[in-house]
Amino acid sequence: MKQAGAPRGWRVNATAAACVACAVLVALAMPVHAWAQSDAVKELAAPAPIQLPLKPSVEFAKFPRYAGTLGKRQIVLRLGPKTDDPSGVHGEYQFADTGEVILIAGDRDNDTLEVEESNDGTHITGNWVGKFAADGSLAGDRMNVDDSDPQPFDLRPLAAGQTAPSPATAGASATAAKTGAQPVGGVSNLTTGE
Questions:
Q1: What percent of the chain shows pLDDT beyond 90?
Q2: Which spans does this entry mark as compositional bias, Low complexity (predicted)?
Q3: What whole-number distance in Å separates Cα of residue 188 and Cα of residue 50?
Q4: In which element (H, E) is residue 75 found?
Q5: pLDDT tens-digit map of 97-116
């Protein structure tokens, strides 16, 4: 039976119209659901936020240690090779007086070291350029991101089992230097030779 007044090919029954309407609604709703799922997946896949202040990493505990000064402050540097980059190095250094930890990463080309540092694991806070000597020591300059305010660093390798200056020992040495006393066994209120 033909419907009067409806052009040929434009006739649609109620069931077909309902199916088309449902398909349109599903298509419109799907991207919203897909976006929500995508955001949830991204959140789950994102790395864990870095806990501040930074703490010494167990990953770097096995690396060779270097002790010495950065500017006028005592530090201990742990520096080792990256596993995914043959010329890459990474690690951390820690100030002996405060215990503050700073991450470093960059390149070593023969005896030249060029690394960047970060105090939060995300933002670059400085650059290091230095040279390794034949005895394994490392010396150079640490600069701000814009290469301003160069501070010299001078580090010596620590032998396995050799202790690095602890925050307490560094504090005692600083106190002794101010008072003119000589620390004995890390205690700064003792003086010798009086």
A1: 47
A2: 159-182
A3: 37
A4: strand 73-81
A5: 999 999 999 999 999 999 99
